[in-house]
Each structure stands twice: as C-alpha cells, then as structure tokens.
Amino acid sequence: MIVLMTGFDPFGGAAINPAWEAVKRIRAPEGVTLLKKEIPTVFRTSGEMLRSLLSEYDPDLVLLIGQAAGRKKISVERTALNLDDARIPDNAGDQPEERPIEETGPAAYFSRLPVKALARAIGDAGVPAEVSLSAGSFVCNHLFYVLLYELEKRKSGAHGGFLHVPAVPEQLPGMPPGTPAMPLPEIVKGLEAALVFLTDNHTNTR
Fold it and tell me: In whole angstroms, what is the distance from residue 175 CA to residue 181 CA?
C-alpha cells in the first residue's frame, strides 16, 4: 500500500511549520510504503506539485497536513471549497480575493475519508481531535480541493483528505496571548494513530 503524506513549509514569517515537522517524524505501519513530501505554501505551485506526485506515485491514500494556529485539537476537515481568498499573501506574494481554484469545478467537495471515525480514532489514542467543516480559503484549502478534483477527474479509487494541526509551544512567542498549542510529539502521535486507522481500514474509508 502506498501512502502519500504532505506537510507545508513555514509561512507568514514563522520559522517552522509543525505540519511538516510532524510528517517528517511519522513512522510507517508495517506493509505501508510512506512517501513524505514538503509542499510550498504557494497557491498555484502547491497544486502543481500535488498533481505531479499523484501522477508519479499513484498512491492508495493521500493525507495532507497543514497548520491552523488558534485550534486546540487536530482537526479532520470535511469540506474543500472552490475558493482562494487569502487574509495574508502566500510565500510567493500571491494574495487572491474570491478566486475560483477550478473554473469548471464544483463549489465544494467532501473529504474521501470517514471524518468522524477518524477523529474518534485520534481521540482514542489520547490526542484531542475534532471534525472541522471547512479547511478555510488559504493554501491548505487550495491543496485539499486540488486533491479531490484530481482524484475525481482521474476516476481514482484512492482515498484522501486533510488534517489541520495546532501550533506548537515553540511558536507561541509573538502570537496573540492565549493562543493554544500542542507539543510536537503529541501531534505526531495523533497523526500516526490516524495513519494506522486508515491503513487498517482502507477498504472502508470511502
């Protein structure tokens, strides 16, 4: 079984991105070929890179990981919107406003993962988790939408979805007071629990 797992590079002036830092540390379950790729926090480039990875590796499962500072739990995203609308510029200076990702694509897609069961599996591992209705409208959502658009376009049976992780304590200086954080080892534990659940239940994850 081939699993593609991605995390974004730092953005918005941050020195690290816990999404990629966690992905780098994930251990593959037995029998799983785990491909880990760092994705640039750039709207168009991120989608182009993902399309290339899908063509090259044809994975059975794709897990996209991003950071959502301000969240307390690992969030399993339910919906990807056909919308780029950025509060801050991406790492290439692009700051779109109400721009569709795919002109001919549907307004939204639902995740190809069992979001509630996945959140429960992470919680059962002792890591706080929740279902989130939307991945926002920044590069995380862009990549999530491109994934689901491409899987449908290619008539692929692959499963895929997006998880947001909180900030880590090392990022808190400079953030608004009261910003929640989760230690990196706990994030890794939660993502590993997600990976084990999804690979163990692969035939039932649609």
Answer: 11
